[in-house]
Write a structure and sequence with these properties.
Elements lengths: L5 E13 L10 E16 L4 E6 L4 E5 L2 E3 L2 H21 L5 E7 L9 H16 L6 H16 L5 H8 L2 E5 L3 E5 L6 E6 L6 H14 L1 H23 L3 H17 L5 H12 L4 E5 L6 E5 L5 H10 L3 E6 L6 E5 L1
Parallel strand pairs: 3-6
Antiparallel strand pairs: 1-2, 1-13, 2-6, 2-7, 3-4, 4-5, 7-8, 9-11, 9-12, 10-11
């Protein structure tokens, strides 16, 4: 490792096309990587301090396990330190590092920022020590930080950031990569409303306990819908995918995880010609997505902005995490 050596890695965020919440209860979810990225740069230090900074203005350093910096920054930086430490231990290294993070993925709105950050950090630190992790090892090491953030993560966010493209996730069968030949233009509408994923998951569980027969039928419908969405993607039938996304949003409304701001944005998108629209992620706030044609994307993004959202034009990306060295 020469003087001035810098290692970089970048990985995409994600949206859920169909299946959120139902996936917790054994049905399939379809997850797609989008062209929004976390990038991590790693440089060496002459001491054993781990210094972490980000373009959000958050920074701090760790001298062994002791944190030095603003206390309100520590909660954000601890998972990054866990990712760094997991690599140092795996490679049996003991060296100080400067780690800088930049991101175009909005934080804490269901677009996979923490999963992408964990994967990117592991890849960049590994690359600094001239080690390129295989996908399975990368997933295993990055899951340590995600457990800190989400307690019991499925691992799907790390998987999609690692592989890119589209992944089908099912609790019983794990991850399956799905080849979808056509581009999939998406407009994301971010409500800016914070939500608690764990609370919403628990709310659905309680609803299922209270009305098991009715809610089970909704879950079964969602499972069948996911299978039809897989067929639509494989056949590049974007119109059918849009229709299924509309139905999926209705099912999510039925189990009580939508929000009036999300419903309003879904309505605006459909009213302006979107092929389909639904919430993405936990619901209760956060983001919705609209499936559009390339020609519609700017207009629908503008309409969502007028409806009170921060809009992002995105599309499927087939490449997952990448890392490289720069002198």
């Amino acid at each position: 490792m020469g003087k001035g050596l810098k290692a970089f890695a970048t990985a995409p965020g994600k949206i859920i096309l169909v299946g959120e919440h139902f996936v917790v209860h054994g049905e399939s979810a379809i997850v797609m990587a989008i062209n929004r990225y976390v990038t991590v740069m790693v440089e060496g230090r002459s001491d054993e301090v781990i210094h972490i900074s980000s373009d959000l203005g958050i920074s701090g350093q760790y001298n062994k396990d002791r944190f030095h910096g603003p206390k309100d920054h520590q909660k954000t930086l601890d998972p990054i330190k866990i990712s760094i430490q997991s690599v140092l231990e795996a490679l049996r290294e003991n060296k100080g590092l400067d780690v800088h993070i930049s991101s175009t993925i909005p934080v804490a709105v269901g677009l996979g920022s923490s999963g992408a950050l964990a994967v990117t950090t592991v890849a960049a630190v590994g690359r600094y020590f001239n080690h390129e992790f295989q996908a399975e090892e990368l997933l295993k090491l990055s899951l340590k930080a995600e457990r800190y953030v989400h307690i019991n993560p499925s691992g799907v966010d790390q998987a999609i950031s690692t592989y890119g493209g589209i992944i089908i996730y099912n609790k019983k069968t794990g991850f399956t990569r799905l080849e979808a030949p056509s581009p999939i233009p998406i407009v994301i509408g971010n409500t800016g409303i914070e939500r608690n994923t764990g609370r919403l998951v628990d709310q659905v569980r309680k609803l299922k306990q209270k009305y098991p027969q009715t809610v089970d039928l909704i879950f079964q419908s969602a499972g069948e819908l996911a299978l039809q969405a897989i067929d639509a993607l494989q056949q590049s039938n974007i119109t059918s995918l849009g229709n299924l996304m509309n139905i999926n949003h209705g099912l999510l409304m039925a189990i009580g995880v939508s929000h009036e701001a999300l419903d309003r944005l879904v309505h605006i998108a459909k009213q302006n010609g979107a092929l389909g629209a639904k919430l993405t992620g936990a619901g209760g706030g956060g983001c919705m997505i609209a499936l559009v044609t390339q020609e519609q994307s700017d207009q629908i993004a503008e309409k969502l902005q007028l409806g009170g959202a921060t809009s992002i034009i995105a599309e499927k990306v087939n490449t997952g995490v990448r890392s490289w060295i720069s002198e």
